[in-house]
Design a protein that fits this description.
One of its GO terms (molecular function) is ATP binding. Belongs to the GHMP kinase family. GalK subfamily. This is Galactokinase. Pfam families: GalKase_gal_bdg, GHMP_kinases_C, GHMP_kinases_N. The protein is α+β, with helices and mostly antiparallel strands. The chain folds into two domains: about 5-200, Ribosomal Protein S5, domain 2, CATH 3.30.230.10; about 205-375, 2-Layer Sandwich (Alpha-Beta Plaits). Helices cover about 45% and strands about 25% of the residues. It has eleven helices and 13 strands. The strands form three sheets. Strands 5-4-6-3-1-13 form a six-stranded mixed β-sheet, with helices on both faces. A four-stranded antiparallel β-sheet has the order 10-11-9-12. A three-stranded antiparallel β-sheet has the order 2-7-8, covered by helices on one side. Strand 7 and strand 8 (about 195) form a beta hairpin.
């Protein structure tokens, strides 16, 4: 992102004075999808693309926030009980409220922000926005007294309370804790995490953005979370002497024991989650051994589970996954919440050009547009730029 561009928009729309500039990244997730809210493991990394914002206290009664990309200005007061109606602004309003709840004495401010995280690509532009403003408000008004984990939880609470998405903590965690050249294995139950060097020799990590985002009725994300909770409830009834907080606490035998006590759909969802928990740990072992073939195999297994068991894929993403298989790509899967967005692909250097050319050609022939190629560079988490 261009610092001077963000600054020029800030100066134009406000009083000509400059403020502080902050940035926070989007993320990729190598493996471990829909496991965070089930207490399992995830394996994300921050990327170079993200959100950049210039912010300055204004001494007024209202917060004035300008979205450079949308060319939209929103005003709200700190103690407004309802907040703005525009969805993008509710992320920022929510962060203001959550930081105040943490004891940060947030004062009215002017802000302008822009992003280069592709919207709808499953790279968590919303978490980048939340983390950017949480970090900034902590720096400006809290003297950095709020911990990084509290910043993560403030972003998650914003999704829950102000957006209506009952997300886990992976997206905000990656955006806050990311480090250049490192992936992270996060235990979403204990919050313990470990950095893993990500500098694979002979391979590239690349996203293919289908540019598709299917409109869905209801809340399919929350529906799948409810399925998992239904199975946890059944497990608790079947095994009253054991505590089941999430599907993380279940093993395969226990899941089979309640198969006839839950719906076929709920069972499929839970089956995917238990398998994904095992796959993340297998990938960690494979990476430590430099075994990228196993990493790739587990990625394909995850795609199958997301498509057939969790049912969050779509025709276009399955198409891109099949192209990857046909081209001999080491690993490929849908990335993110689903129903559109990207596949993430682990590709040997020697077939990279052929794979990209084939994917573009075949996808355009099938869907009348090319996928967008996003080469992944692992970057740093939320930070102050200047």
């Amino acid at each position: 992102m261009d610092i001077e561009f963000v600054r020029s928009r800030f100066v134009k729309h406000f009083d000509g004075k400059t403020g502080n500039i902050y940035a926070s990244p989007g993320r990729i997730n190598l493996i471990g999808e829909h496991t965070d809210y089930n207490g399992g493991f995830v394996f994300p990394g921050a990327v170079e693309q993200g959100i950049m914002a210039e912010i300055r206290p204004n001494g007024q009664k209202t917060c004035n926030v300008y979205s450079i990309d949308l060319k939209d200005m929103v005003h709200f007061t700190i103690d407004d009980p309802k907040g703005p109606s525009a969805t993008w602004a509710r992320y920022i309003y929510g962060i203001v409220q959550e930081m105040r709840a943490l004891g940060v004495d947030v004062k009215p401010f002017n802000a302008a922000f822009a992003g280069d995280v592709p919207l709808g690509a499953g790279m968590s532009s919303s978490a980048a926005l939340e983390s950017c403003f949480a970090f900034a408000l902590n720096d400006l008004f809290g003297d950095n007294k709020v911990s990084k984990w509290d910043l993560v939880l403030a972003g998650q609470a914003t999704e829950h309370k102000y957006i209506g998405v009952n997300c886990g903590i992976m997206d905000q965690f990656a955006s806050v804790f990311g480090k250049k050249g490192k992936l992270m294995r996060l235990d979403c139950r204990s919050r313990e995490f470990e950095y893993f060097p990500w500098e694979p020799k002979g391979y590239k990590l690349v996203l293919l953005n289908s540019k598709v985002k299917h409109e869905l009725k209801g809340s399919p994300y929350n529906d799948r979370r409810n399925s998992c909770e239904n199975v946890v409830k059944a497990l608790g009834q079947q095994f009253p002497d054991k505590k089941f907080e999430t599907l993380r606490d279940a093993d395969w035998d226990e899941l089979e024991a309640v198969k006839d006590k839950v719906s076929a759909e709920d069972y499929k969802r839970a089956h995917f989650v238990l398998g994904e928990k095992d796959r993340v740990l297998a990938v960690c072992d494979a990476l430590q051994a430099g075994d990228y073939e196993t990493v790739g195999q587990k990625m394909y297994e995850t795609h199958y589970g997301l498509s057939k068991e969790y049912e969050v894929s779509c025709e276009e993403l399955d198409f891109l996954n099949n192209v990857a298989k046909e081209c001999g790509v080491t690993g490929s899967r849908i990335m993110g919440g689903g129903f559109g967005g990207c596949t993430i692909n682990l590709v040997k250097d020697e077939i990279y050009d052929k794979f990209i050319a084939t994917a573009k050609k075949n996808f355009k022939a099938a869907y009348d547009h090319e996928p967008v190629v996003i080469d992944v560079v692992i970057g740093d988490g939320a930070r102050k730029i200047c």
